[in-house]
Amino acid sequence: MKKIILLFLFLGLSLTSCDDEFLDPTKPTEEDVFSSRSGLIGAANGLQSKWSVGRQSPVYTIITGSGFTTNEFRLLNAGNADEAELLAGGVSVSSKNALINNLWSQSLVINAEAQKVLDKIDIITVPAEKASVFVHASIYKALAIGTLVQFFEQVPLETMKNATFSSRAEVIAATIATLKSTEPYLATANGFSGLVGNIKYKNTVNALLARFYLMAGDNDNALLYANLVDLTSKSTFLYDAISNNPIANVAILTPNNYQPIDRTFGLPAALAPTSSDGRVNFYITPGSNPTTGAGFFDSNSKLIPLYLPGEIMLIKAEAYARKNQLPEAILELNKVLTKTAAADAFGVGANLLPYTGTVNQTSILTEIYRNRCIELYMSGLKLEDSKRFNRPNTERNRDWYPYPDSERFNNPNTPADPAN
């Protein structure tokens, strides 16, 4: 992370979907950043820093927001007013909430900056470099818009004054199209010296395509791309002593923010993990009482995965179940249930017996949801999962977040806030 060149940070001052910019004369101009090979590489590296580092980053706001909204966390200090609002949920969540504002503004900035890199990609002439930067920027563009639509009913896809808002279906389609646009480059997108090297581009694109096709309800394509993912390959956000893991730094390692709610992972009794489930002691410090977080979040330098092998297995299980191909769904589900820590690229293992429940679509989908909540704990995906599986409203305190004031006051096309 020390090598990341944050040439584009001045652009972060434009926090809404409009095109107003306030330039600092001591920093490089937009023309400087996007008119050279080194500038484009620096901007591409900066996308990862902006996405993953700091309390304002989407990594922090996604995991924190989803976690409080779906009962994954307990708050240690009500003085953390923004987290307290998300924990209370309902009408308590205001359009002034800083976490929601950061999730919105940072994601819009990343979407805009990624698109500028893509628009100028022909400046880079070495094929492997061009391919790697194109795929790198596309991944962050897809993450930005694809994440926003999990938390907000509608999202602006363009960065312009008075931008119009697009529906969930349109945003997911745009996310998929962004990822699909990388396919001509994947064979040569192997990274190079100077570009952050912790993302395996082909596997990450295929994993994200599987994720977003599943959200779109396209089970056939979700299966197609999930089957292309090498489950031994790892893609991560990098952290070190300077660029800290934001969940560890801001929450888990501090005495006054939040921790895992308990060993139930915030699930109702019928879905809570058993005491023999190895994933409990992976995500929660063994013997801690009250519970403290572990897993990917108990050190400032712990790496956070972009996706887990278990997510890919569960995508396949869910897609088969929704197609009513129940034997195939159970086969994939059992891969997660019986997986040991030693057999998993990140050490996440349930080490349980195979599924012995009722063999019908409803029961199997419920078991898949249960395992997504446990296997992917603190991933930021639970709010989306809770809605997609039509879980009771009592298991989440909101469906959608209100639009930030920074958007509403600058864009007359901002939709009405959702009731819940």
UniProtKB/TrEMBL annotation:
Biased composition (Basic and acidic residues): 389-399
Top-level taxon of origin: Bacteria
Region annotated Disordered, chain positions: 389-420
Keywords: Signal
Family matches, as Gene3D superfamilies: 1.25.40.390
Signal peptide start and end residues: 1-19
Keyword match Hydrolase: no
Keyword Signal: yes
InterPro entries given in the database record: TPR-like_helical_dom_sf
Name of the protein described by the UniProt record: RagB/SusD family nutrient uptake outer membrane protein
